[in-house]
Amino acid sequence: MQITFDQVSHIYAKGTPFERVALHNISLTIPSGSFVGIIGHTGSGKSTLIQHLNGLLMPSTGQITLGDAVITPKRRLPHAQRRDIGLVFQYPEHQLFEETVAKDVAFGPLNFDLPTEMVEARVKESLEIVGLDYATIKDRSPFHLSGGQMRRVALAGVLAMQPKVLVLDEPTAGLDPAGRVTILEGIYRIHREQNLTTLLVTHSMEEAARYADYLLVMAQGQVALQGKPEEVFMHVNRLRELSLDVPETVALVSQMNQMLPDKASLPSSLYREEELIAHLLERLSVPKEG
Ligand SMILES: Nc1ncnc2c1ncn2[C@@H]1O[C@H](COP(=O)(O)OP(=O)(O)OP(=O)(O)O)[C@@H](O)[C@H]1O
Predict the structure, then answer these.
(1) Pocket around ligand 1: residues whose beta carbon is below 6 Å from it?
(2) Nearest protein CA to atom 12 of ligand 1, as residue
(3) How far is the CA of 192 from the centre of ligand 1 (A)?
(4) Which of 245, 248, 216, 244 shows the shortest CA–CA distance to 229?
(5) So which residues are the signal peptide here (predicted)?
């Protein structure tokens, strides 16, 4: 599903002493099937932006188009289309509430009156996507799982709705490195298999570089930079001005280029570690393993 924002602003507590402009005239297009990394300093407007996608927030001005639905300050996203947008909040495990994992994951699809067998199939499939074994976990209490497992159950609950767009607000916050990889690899796999439009809010440039094919860099309620990762990472100085890191590979390529003579310099489009290694091996003509 294609998403566009056309001159969207959002003002919290308008007309009160607490008024706060959180988004200023945002215009952007997210093509169907893309994986968008949304990066930015704390308070830059990332969560405000994504909460417009499922109707939790309404634009103060401007217009948002989600597929063929149009949202304006006066026109809400129709209820039937809300289920197309799967929004995974920060710390989604806080919203688990059922007595078993299977019931929790089934909650959304049951609310949409799907037949029981279909719900069961979706629960099984969604748990497996997030790397949990249905038979082992289905009857357990979600509250007796590890933090990482709880997070995965919560994510499965959103996937069981079979959304057309998946929006994730820092899904790996607070997890250990192994837990982060499991969650992100699961998300990336369904994004690829189902061509699912995916928006990932993250504080980690490394995560953005690994998974996203398009980046939005937010600063003070505006889009400071946007484009393919290699385009955005060329603006190393601008990113640093915004107190954002660049991925280690980008920093390394930029450092090596300062040392190498011009004709030997490395392409600045290299931003993933494995691509840099492949490039260096090719230059050295070392045959790759396997
Ligand atoms: N409910 C609210 N009422 C008033 N102001 C708010 C509200 N929610 C957010 N803001 C303000 O809007 C601005 C953008 O906040 P937002 O949560 O969208 O940023 P963020 O980039 O998601 O930050 P973080 O990375 O910390 O989650 C901030 O200045 C914040 O203080």
Answers:
(1) 12-13, 20, 22, 40, 42-48
(2) 22
(3) 31
(4) 216
(5) none
Q: How confident is the model at residue 97 (pLDDT cuts 50, 70, 90)?
A: confident
Reported as a single tens digit per residue, the pLDDT across 254-271 is 889 889 888 888 988 888
List the structure tokens of 194. Answer: 């189902």
Alpha carbon distance 40, 214 (integer Å): 14
Secondary structure tally for the chain: helices H, strands E: 12, 10
Distance between CA atoms of 220 and 40, rounded to whole angstroms? 9
Structure token digits, residue 214: 């398009």
More confident residue, 113 or 223: 223
pLDDT single digits (tens) 59-90: 999 999 999 899 999 999 888 788 899 999 88
- Decide if 174 contacts 91 (C-beta within 8 A): yes
Q: What is the pLDDT of residue 284?
A: 85
Residue 254 is predicted with a pLDDT of 87
Q: What angle do CA 148, 202, 55 make, to 5 degrees?
A: 95
Nearest residue to 158 via CA among 114, 104, 113: 104
- Give the closest residue (by CA) to ligand 1 atom 17: 47
DSSP state, 131? Answer: T
Burial of 227: CB neighbours in 10 Å, binned 0-12, 13-18, 19+: middle
Please choose, from the candidates 255, 246, 250, the residue with its C-alpha nearest in 3D space to the C-alpha of residue 276.
Answer: 250
Q: How far is the CA of 42 from the centre of ligand 1 (A)?
A: 8
Tell me how far CA of residue 59 lies from CA of 82, 243, 278, in angstroms.
16, 28, 45
Does an H or E element contain 49, and which? Answer: helix 46-51
This model of the complex carries an ipTM of 0.97
Q: Are 239 and 246 in contact (CB under 8 A)?
A: yes
- Phi and psi (nearest 5°) for 5? -115, 130
